[in-house]
Specification:
single chain, alpha/beta, Rossmann fold, 2 domains, 6-stranded parallel sheet, globular
Amino acid sequence: MHQVKTLLFDLDGTLLPMDNDHFTRGYFKRLVPRMAHLLPPETFLSQLLKSTDMMVRNNDPELTNEQVFKNDFLPAVNGREEDFWPSIEAFYAGEFGELIELSQPTSLAREICEAALHKGYQLVLATNPLFPRAATEHRMRWAGVEHIPFAFVTTYENSHFCKPNPNYYQEMVQKLGVAPESCMMIGNDAFEDLIAGTLGMQTYLVTDCLKTGENDLPFTHKGTLADLLNFVRNELPHIES
């Protein structure tokens, strides 16, 4: 049996507690008006959702999620990247950072990561790569984990698949050069995060902001963030160097 040496952490709803639907509504409410000089709000939002869905459904390893989004979005609105992307990038670089009010950060996130690092584990921030790097960095700051030395952080620029596609996890272990069996995926979504278990990873279902549905999958461990901190400190073994 492989010893777990790499811990993969989901961000939204896990290290960064939030109601995902509430966050998404607030995020759209801020983003959509910023694009009104280019598209009617209802047109922009409709195509944003469609192109995001294209990213989620993509299975082409040759295209990053960013490329999939742009390849779908721009032709659909008869737009040019040079017209749309400066406004989109400015939003993510600036105003997106104010959306911390839509989340409930906890010091447990940093404590968990630091405890795992102290024991020698390699850490990965396995957040669903629907956002650009700038938006992910904001959310890492909100969670208090911006200085954690993650071996890899998934964003839409560097990823070719999204959750719940098992290839999202497969791509990650290939980039890291590790076996799935030596990894544990830690997240709050009983389908999107636990599907990592189908590759042979152990899983830990975090229940503070639990997302469940009709496609729920089995887990190896389960508990709150406080339970997870105790698990890392007292149950996970030190990694021999």
